[in-house]
Amino acid sequence: MTSRERILTALNHRKPDRIPIDLGGMDSTGITGIAYRNLKKYLGFSDTGVYIWEPSQQLAKVEVAVLEKVRGDVLPVFPETLHWRESFLPDGSACLVPERWQPRSAPDGSEVILDEAGKVRWRRVASGHYFEVASFPLREAETVADIEKNRHLLQSFDLFTLADESYQAMGERTGRLYRTTEYGLMGNFSVHLFAAGQLLRGFDQFLMDLATDSALAHCLLDNLVNIYQERFDRFQAAVGPYVQVINVNDDLGMQDGPMLSPALYRRTVKPYQQRLYQYIRKNSTARLFLHTDGSVYQIIPDLIEIGVQILNPVQFSCRDMELKKLKKEFGRDLVFWGGGCDTQKILPFGTPEQIREHVRQCLSDLAPEGGFVFCQVHNIQPDVPPQNIMAMYEAVWDWKY
User: Domains of the chain (ranges plus CATH)?
Assistant: First the structure.
């Protein structure tokens, strides 16, 4: 099978010739810059350069030559960066970042990104790897009118603001990928609703907005859905004929359960997700992929009901997320894209043989009868040794249905 045929077979809940693999298809199935540089060196590449396409998470652009080494089957589709500048990874090694990414050094040794008003929007502490949200632009909003007059902030939210490729150019490039390669193509629509409210209002404030069923929360979510539907029309016109999967994001789970009670989720967030997801389903033939971390077992039936077809990252270290149970209860309705290897403890700290055995167990739970695409649970972190990464993939290569 070609990679695209392999992905489509898995999406149709049938067994492909081998388990399909994703590395870097979207911003939660990738690899961080330090780990990527170490992997390239381990694989014998003379050029160990790294392009960091998503600097807040330090995510590396996975080159096709590396994808071939791990037998990956998926290429990402999103507006790309055309102009790069030299920079450094947190360990001091060289890299390239989007020209538009311009952090400033703060007196305490941290790096900060400022918004248009000069307020710190993102911060990476001196000892850290990642940029964390430092301010929330709509936190002080008190009324529906405050949301409406700041609709421009919602318009730009969740855009690939570091990229400088137009939708037209992205569409033309995606068409070439479709015609000249055999890879599966992942359309990174990558919008949030629940998580958008948290990032715009503040995590604590938006939870209180929802708990009190405030008109402000509903206004925010309603505006986001309308904006995303308009944006999807442009996205679909550019890449719709070529992509097999379209992703959306919305972290709904914690380690021990959903962030919202199922009742509160169904009353406040679910109706807006349903509007957006059904709109995407109605206007696209691609499969709808939802990235949500954490323990979401209690609301998986709701996600299926509103149109989700693919679940990622399948974080089985969380409560109620046992792989065998998920496959048995939801395997006919969902494709599991992830759940192949634990990234919290096993991948960074296990031995290669422990990792192979661990992956074999995950595959025995998720792979039978298809409906599964292999990926580790979330991005490969900086401290993961390259031999552990390759042990993970070797176990997948050796798997027989």
Answer: 3-82+137-398 (3.20.20.210)
